[in-house]
Amino acid sequence: MCVSAGCMLVEKKKTDYITACTGDSVLLPCSCTDGHTKPESFTWKKHNTNRNSWDVISSESEQYRNRVQLGTAHSPGNLSLHISHLTEEDEGVYRCYFNQWKYKNIKLTIKGCVLEHNRETKHITAHTGDSVLLPCSCIDLLAKPESFTWKKYHPKRKTWDVISSESEQYRNRVQLGTAHAPGNLSLLISHLTDEDEGDYDCVHKEYEQLYIKLTCKEISTTEFTSIFDGKTSAKAPADASTTDSAKTLTDGNMRLLQGLLIS
Ligand SMILES: *[C@@H]1O[C@H](CO)[C@@H](O)[C@H](O)[C@H]1NC(C)=O
Ligand SMILES: *[C@@H]1O[C@H](CO)[C@@H](O)[C@H](O)[C@H]1NC(C)=O
């Protein structure tokens, strides 16, 4: 019978250090030097710090169901472990055993969402009719929060009500978080009304929170004037002082406005 040398682990002594974010996928590399050598058997284990034991990782277990892939079908010497939908519980030391005594360690660190400016209060002022962004984010914008909600204080009922884009009050007016950065939990409210004024709370995992006090202002006459004469034309920079006809119109409006103020 011809016996092959069997699987020799690549870099068997070294411990690999890998960092990933919650919500992401990670590949814990482990392979035989010869990619086509099939080890007699291989297992992945994770260190259980509570019991100081090594638990076998199985795609059948509840913890890992539909989340792990052990090795690759097309390359028998590739024993890599792929884990998706990472949670903070996935952090720890993993071991790739290619027989009972030979293994390789991988230390996986998970960066979860930690709310930036936790427990702080921000004051924001916006104009009715406009849009406003209530900022709230994880320190690491790539970390996916395990759960987050936005709440608004109802002074009459003295309750904190969850803001939902499904509710009649906010339908087609709010956007909770952004698709391109999972750690950006900001709330965008458009077509602001007086009722939107008040206290907001961005809550992550029930215990981290950021408070925002939103003040809604009507656009005042002085602000109209500044828009028309283009001095502090933050709101309409393109409209002021572009063409002569626009200027004439502006002057006309100014006179009209002054006339109204005098009368
Ligand atoms: C092992 O397989 C994974 C997933 O298919 C792949 O990303 C990785 O590069 C492979 N490793 C080696 C050493 O071939
Ligand atoms: C979050 O997303 C909003 C809207 O896309 C953007 O204006 C804001 O700058 C983002 N915040 C961070 C911290 O990237």
From TrEMBL:
It is a single-pass type I membrane protein. GO terms for cellular component: external side of plasma membrane. Keywords: Cell membrane, Disulfide bond, Glycoprotein, Immunoglobulin domain, Membrane, Receptor, Signal, Transmembrane, Transmembrane helix. The keyword Cytoplasm does not apply. GO terms for biological process: cell surface receptor signaling pathway; cellular response to lipopolysaccharide; immune response; negative regulation of T cell proliferation; positive regulation of T cell proliferation; T cell costimulation. Pfam families: V-set. PROSITE patterns: IG_LIKE. Residues 23-96, 129-202 form the Ig-like domain. The keyword Calcium does not apply. It is found in: Cell membrane. This is Ig-like domain-containing protein. It comes from Electrophorus electricus (Electric eel). The gene is MARCHF2.
